[in-house]
Design brief:
With 454 residues, the chain is α+β, with helices and mostly antiparallel strands. The chain has 2 domains: 82 residues, no CATH class; 299 residues, Beta-lactamase. It has 14 helices and 14 strands. The chain starts with a helix and ends with a helix.
Length: 454
Amino acid sequence: MRIVGKLLRGLAIGLVVLIIAGLGWLLVSPPSLLLVGTGYAAKMVCSNVFLAGRDPEAVLAVDVQAPGHPLLRLVTVNVDRDAGTVRASMLGFIAPSLAVNRPGFGCANVADGDVERARDLPPKDTVSAIADGVWPEGNDVTVTDPRIASVLVDVSLQGPGMRGVVVVQDGRILGETYGDGFGPDVPLLGWSMTKTVNAAILGRLVLEDRISLDESNLFSNWKDDPRSAITLRSLLAMEDGLRFNELYGDVADVTRMLFLEPDMAAFASARPKAEAPGTAFNYSSGTAVLLSRLWMDRIGDRPEALAYPDEALFRPLGMTSAVFETDARGTFVGSSYMYATPRDWARFALLLLQDGFWNGERLLPEGYVAAMAEPTEASGGRYSRMQTWTVGPGFDAREDYGLPPDMFWLQGHDGQTIAVVPSLRLAVLRMGLTPYNKGYRPQLLVKAVIDALN
């Protein structure tokens, strides 16, 4: 019996030692997967608290934990409203991550802990309030077109987790509806719909003859390198040939860039060449961040570059709620991070419907919007030459839904879509929290709207 007792005590001591060693390892060198999880939680809570005014615990539970990896259920967050920070960790002490809010520029992950550098951004001018009047000149939307009233109340067409639906035709909002807890004044994250906004900002520089789509030798670290042949045009079409893993749910290039890298553009520009430029399609958030870095570098002056989205796009369109977030080094995250109210997202859609014109002034180059509906051969006809999709979520053939052939899509993670139909002067925005595995297809909503209007 004494031998058995000694064995049991030895096993117990060994187990305690293993637990202590394991905890020490998690504290000193936590796995990247855990850091991605806490970085994601810190960023999402930070942006939704400081930009959208939402409750942090609700954001953690609904937006982060419910649809995410099971490990996210172990995450806790601490919000310091005075300091403008959000700290997240597993079980309160493992794999800590920090996100910091910078007024006017949103939140950024501070994976390297350099909060002072992340805050080193110039003061941002206050955006003037939208004028009184009917949308889009003002914010008055008082009448719902009776033809689409039944569409807007159909829960099956809205899809699970719907947060906002806006229907625009002939320059006016015909109807809108919102999910519980949301409304026309709550900014929503567009995720990859930001890519198209980023392309439009680049288009402003093209119109001003400050940058050319055929330029190559785009980055200094690509000099005397096969990547020097990559053109701005190939980046816009996602045909740059860079190796970039866009798979979510694990530690891939995209999650590492978004949640662990303070300088996202440096990370993306270091990706190796995998294919000859212009020959293969690879959807890449890293590519979109490179586009941001390129147009910012072309402007040169840092304060001017940081003010450019407001001056060139948001202010002319009256998008007073729009916040284009930067990373911790001050590069706009052109792949993923723009918040705006549904009505302001709809203003951007209206710009595209009007072929880049606004109040009689051309804001985008001639042919720029048309390129958003032009499918590329390398993508198998799924993607355009200008940071948009030519087929909707699910990559189903558009003929399956009987939708107009000139339609193109802005699409973002977890169910953010804007369908743009130039031939009908129609845009249908649908935003929410709807993971792809829910099987929701906004094509049915768009078809119902078209049928009702016809």
